[in-house]
Amino acid sequence: RAARPETTEAACTVFSGVVHDAAQERKVRDIMRRHIAFYASTPAYLPVLAHAGFEEIHAPLRAMSRAGEWDRMASAISDDILDAFAVFDAPRRLGERLAAKYAGILTEIAVYREGGQFASDSDWRALVEGLSTPRR
Fold this sequence. Notes:
By secondary structure, the chain is mainly alpha-helical. The chain has helices at 22-40, 46-52, 58-66, 70-75, 79-85, 91-102, 121-132, and strands spanning 11-14, 16-18, 87-89, 108-111.
């Protein structure tokens, strides 16, 4: 029996980070760049890359992963690719952007552990407020 869309729930850990300044953003972007490079090297992620128009990076990343060239893999993830898959911002704004990006797709969102390394308890509350802001 297929569930009706209004009753379907979907949860996902998303590439994102709570950041307060440029130094924090650089650090979290570098971490997420490594995560994305790993995922993009796997055959299971090829359809995701193709959907976003980045399938050409899969084969080189796969070869680099087999050779253990992890640092080189991360450097192969351009800012365009990173920004297509990841979102970084101040807490409330991050919540708003995640809500807009995943509206109608996800009912629950989790931030990668490393993406929350600069977040305080009040930051998490602000992020939740941003997620809860009604869309226009």
